[in-house]
Design a protein that fits this description.
By secondary structure, this protein is mainly α. Helix content is 60%, strand content 0%. It holds the Pfam family UPF0149.
Length: 220
Amino acid sequence: MRHNSMNEKLTKSQEKKLTEVLDEAAQFGGMTLMQSRGYLAHIHCFPKTIDPGIWSAHIANVKPEKELWPFENKIMEMLFTLYNQLHTEVVEKGQVISPKCNALLDEVKQRRIPQDLRHWCAGFMTGYMVLREKWQEVCCPEQLEEVESCSHMMGYLATLGSEEEHALAWRDGAEPAPEMLLEAIQEAMDYMHGWSQMELDEDNQPVNAMVNPNEGNSLN
């Protein structure tokens, strides 16, 4: 579901301003703009609307408070625009991974994990951690395992850019092969996109009747 926002896409000046604000928030445990893109992509995969006061508070790394936004109104308006932009990309176009990551994913073929890609993946994984209990409410055990696996896949990709032993080994030629890794990522994101096409009511029953999560149907 979209938010009421004047704009459907951030202008370059808005994106620059939002980048500055979120970079500052990230210094205090919040999310950068790229992390926010990954985080909101996961939010859009979840089949129920999440209160904006909750998701925006996690971006700022503050405790959600009723009737109090974590950022000033001008910045919140930009975040709502970003939210709507991600709705178009994820839900309508099936681009769970941001188009801004396409060139970055090409780097994976050379066994390189750019920082922006790591940030996006970390944000997506954070989305799962934030919504984990809510996923448990709407998924059967098999589906929950799949959602968790897909989310951890992105967390794993982020670690491959670190200085951890397994990451250094991978960048030096260890398994998995980049092509297999990219294929697994695509499959994971296709699965998560399937959830974005479902809408559940308060009783966790499908409004659009595309998939019944209680029957353990796999999403394609």
